[in-house]
Amino acid sequence: MEAVRDKAVVVTGAGGGIGAALARRFATEGARVVVNDLDAAKAEKTAAELGALAVPGDASTVVPAAREALGGDIDIFCANAGVGTGGGPDAPEDDWALAWDVNVMAHVRAARELLPGWLARGDGRFVSTVSAAGLLTMIEAAPYSVTKHGAYAFAEWLSLTYRHRGVAVHAICPQGVRTDMLAATGAAGELVLTPTAVEPETVADALLDAMAEDRFLVLPHPEVAAYYTARAAEPDRWLGSMNRLQQKLERTDGR
Q1: Tens of pLDDT along 148-172?
Q2: 3-class DSSP state for residue 220?
Q3: Which domains does the chain have, with CATH numbers?
Q4: Residue of 19, 49, 154, 235 with fewest CB within 10 Å of its CB?
Q5: What distance in Å separates the CA atoms of residue 160 and residue 245, rounded to the nearest whole number?
């Protein structure tokens, strides 16, 4: 893509999984890529493989260091780092706080840093890795589902507020992706996500297609559009179908 070549790109959570696939695809397209991850060894390993720049650390505060590494402005920021916190209202307060901080506030803090420059020059692109859980929900994972709804809402707000001023926004909403996070979802993931899981590279391809079409919503699993429509049109029927999944999981677990 000519729109990507020579662009300065930052991908958070890029030590593996979707983030590494995004960084790899951008590097292949000729972008100058910063690989960010809380795990410094993973960030450096991915960066070395791609001929990219490693800027490890907290995704919430990476923008200034990434600018310094790139020697200038950031053109595309991929807010990809996330945590898959499970449980319900009984999940520890620290788990809820971590999910909110990483899945939502890291996006807010990055946008706060990036927007003044993007608005001044009339150009910039913010990519939010949300999850289909941000459009729908995920059983057994209230903190994850709630905060991913928040991440989607923030991406949507950015788009409707700034698109006329040159800021493009994309929300990536896959279902299961074959990553370490999927492996950690346990029985709920096995039931709901694993049967249709895709490779991280499929997510990267879907993003590049959406960028080429200037499309906000990125659906590596196209069927999510129909689920989202059904959820809006017939919420009780949709909730009933999700409750049946919950009951199936409980029978599987012997609850």
Answers
A1: 999 999 999 999 999 999 999 999 9
A2: coil
A3: 8-225 (3.40.50.720)
A4: 235
A5: 34
